[in-house]
């Protein structure tokens, strides 16, 4: 299985129109509790065509972080509850995947009720992201998020990225889903 190692702080320069520093810190909150830098995730890709050579449908992602981000993560643990930390940590990993594997994958936040977290205007796709610390929730959450993203008001096809920060299984499932033609 191919291995990639990327720094979580890369999302900040890769997505200059977004404020993602807090998401990077929240990712480090969860990753640093399970591993020293870097933290490893198995990434499973379904239906996503990557222009980057040698990216297969399954690879090992090693996410590293610097000392400054770790310091902020320690402070974040006293500031936020676990559920929003898991959700924003997943946004950080999704932003990292798009930054490294999909050109023109610039993310634009949706409005509440749009049934997706982000629009990807250059790709004419919606993106739904979710994070969990419980592997038993992983498959159900993925299925729910597929239905959710495909009900977006623009009727765009959609990507779903689910990140599992379980102590025993760290997994990212990234899938692409098309609208049914009428």
Largest sheet: 8 strands, mixed
Number of domains: 1
- State mean pLDDT (0 to 100 scale): 92
Count every helix, treating DSSP H or I runs of 4 or more residues as helices.
5
The proportion of strand residues reads 25-35%
Distance N terminus to C terminus?
39 Å
The outline comes out as globular
Topology as H/E string? EHHEEHHEEEHEE
- How many strand elements? 8
Structural class: alpha/beta
Radius of gyration: 15 Å
Task: Outline the low-pLDDT stretches.
Answer: none
Q: How is the largest sheet built, in terms of strand order?
A: 1-3-2-8-7-6-5-4
Helix content: 25-40%
Output the keywords.
single chain; alpha/beta; eight-stranded mixed β-sheet
Compose a concise summary of this entry.
By secondary structure, this protein is an alpha/beta fold. The protein has helices at 10-14, 21-32, 67-76, 82-101, 138-149, and strands at residues 3-7, 39-46, 58-64, 108-109, 118-120, 125-132, 157-165, 170-177. The protein has one domain (3-177).
Overview of the molecule:
By secondary structure, this protein is an alpha/beta fold. It has one domain. 32% of the residues lie in helices and 27% in strands. It contains five helices and eight strands. An eight-stranded mixed sheet has the order 1-3-2-8-7-6-5-4. A hairpin with an 8-residue loop joins β4 and β5. It starts with a strand and ends in a 5-residue tail after the last strand.
